[in-house]
Amino acid sequence: MNGADPEMVVEGLVEMGPGGPRLIGSHCLGCGTLYFPQMPGCPNPDCHDKRLERTLLPDEGTLYSYTIQRYQPPPLFRMDDWAPYVLGLVDLGAGLRVMGMLSGIGENEVEIGMKLRLAVEPLYRDAERGDVCTYMFAAAGDRA
Amino acid sequence: MRPVYALGAGVHPWGKWPDKPQLQLALEAMDAALADAGVAWPDVQALAAASSRFEGGMGWGLHANEVVQAVAEQGMPCINVGGACAAGVIALQSAYSLIASGQYDVVAALGAERMPKGFIPRPPGGKDDRTDNDYLRWVTMGATNPAYWAIEARRRQHDHGTTAETLAKASVLMRRNAAGNRYARYRDPVGVEEVFASPMVADPLHLLQICPVSDGAAAVILGSEDFVKRSGKPAVWVAGCAVGSGQFGDPARRIPTIATTVREGIPHTSEVVGAVRRAFEMAGVAPKDIDVLEMADNTAWHILAWPELFGFYEPGQGDWMLENGKLAIDGEIAVNPSGGFLSFGEATTAQALLQVAEVLWQLRGQAEGHQVSDAKVGMTAVLGLGANGGSVILTR
Ligand SMILES: [Zn+2]
After folding, report:
1. pLDDT, tens only, B21-39
2. Residue B178 CB neighbours (<10 A)
3. Residue B298 Ramachandran class (φ > 0 left, ψ -120 to 50 alpha, else beta)
4. ∠B62-B89-B340 over CA atoms, to 5°?
């Protein structure tokens, strides 16, 4: 992506790289576990090292399950032209499952097991901040 | 450890009680429990209260202190516990331990709650940044509580072929059970059509498949064997009493987190499954021995999934059990003969004690209007925010 990084709804979750957006998580040097978002410690009881390093997570995964959010969430959630949307649980491998909105996938197209790829999409337009974005998951292969 | 007995219980009916402060609900539940146990405040040596974060407790979660300062300033220990929706069972565990240890002979556990209107608000104390999960889940994706459960339900449909109709029938069963229970808030039976006609909240869950929020209060009085013998009161043995928290690798979608690290071999909803297993072990019983199971049915999905998680039958078999009447009051194992949270609504800190009261009355044959025939062993199971779980087994 050229130019300025997109304005995100919250800082520290996504890094924009040459290959597209990546989620920022933690990797445990002791047991190898991946976490999202970054963790203050490693809760694995079999892990004795527990030192964590910042890491970029896989940007592709498969849909493990989903729902359609049919009513408008309370005001902390902001979205222009609100309409029901698909909320997915995406398996990124290594046991890590991440929730997020699905982008460009209608309720009749969504299917457990489908391949998805991380995306960054605008949620709303703010007078001062411009387009404010969040991470989402889009159908893999849909992106140029 | 000394054996512990349930002497009595009291419940303030669930509903919306705008004219009754939380303290009033608490005192009425306590009065009912004391009367049921045949004791009075001077007999009570300690009080463990589940602390609400919504109302009362002098603003600091001091719910036990607030109660004793109102009616029983006799120097007793006041134990105020947290645990969100499972706080009631943690209060009971505290009361249980005080008696089992030999320190006291009569101890009360109490939970009383007036829920805020609409959405349960984000708790205070979090920062508006990525370190607060409850902030993240709202701003990044607007994930409501029902969405978490709906994701579980949708996966169950994928794994076990659970139909929309079976999911609807779980709600139908709860409302049928509640029809006979004067403490329940929603007592009108509903049919599958009405469940389907209620608004879709988060597919596949409709409004009537998700528990609402309510006001309510419940109290349980526990006593030692010495006290039971001395007083000659009828009592039911608390054969198992356990609380626990979640295990690493649990695949459950845990509110309000936005991701999970899953490991093979870790039970789903491990905080509750762990407590249930410990309670079974303490009581020396197995699922086949249980006549009544009062479990947290935050949604219709829970009715199908939870007994499987606890080992009552194989994963996926819940659908067949429900469809064939095996979970009804006159079935093989009565699941929520009270009507469950789907008929009561969540009164967070009180609900685990409501479950214990229900099981106690079932074992005594006093569950007027919804009695399970000849119930001998009953169990509760409840889940709370922060991966708190608890389970209690009573036997007669
Ligand atoms: Zn580790």
Report:
1. 999 999 999 999 999 999 9
2. 27
3. alpha
4. 115
**Under 8 Å between Cβ of A17 and A24:** no
CA distances B113 to B25, B36, B110, B337, Å, are: 8, 21, 10, 22
Structure tokens at B351: 């609900």
**Partners of A97 in the β-ladder:** A91, B260
Which residues lie below 8 Å from residue B200, measured CB to CB, with a gap of 6+?
Answer: A68, A70, B206, B207
- Nearest CA to B261 out of A88, A8, A140, A39 is that of A39
Residue B249 and residue B273 in contact, taking contact as beta carbons nearer than 8 Å: no
DSSP string across A77-104: S--TT---EEEEEEE-STTEEEEEEEES
A33/B129 touch (CB, cutoff 8 Å), yes or no: no
Instruction: Find chain A residues with C-beta within 8 A of B209's C-beta.
Output: none
Matching residue, tokens 């690798």: B249
- ipTM for the predicted complex comes to 0.96
The torsion angle over the Cα atoms of residues A55, A59, A63 and A66, rounded to 10 degrees, is 70
Any A CB within 8 A of B127 CB: no
For ligand 1, a single-atom ion, which residues have Cβ within 5 Å? A 28, 30-31, 42, 44, 47
User: Which of A99, A105, A114 to probe by mutation at the B interface, max B CB count within 10 Å?
Assistant: A99
B338-385 pLDDT, tens digit per residue, is 999 999 999 999 999 999 999 999 999 999 999 999 999 999 999 999
**What letter does residue B213 receive in the DSSP assignment?**
B
Cα B68 to Cα B141: distance, rounded to the nearest angstrom: 44
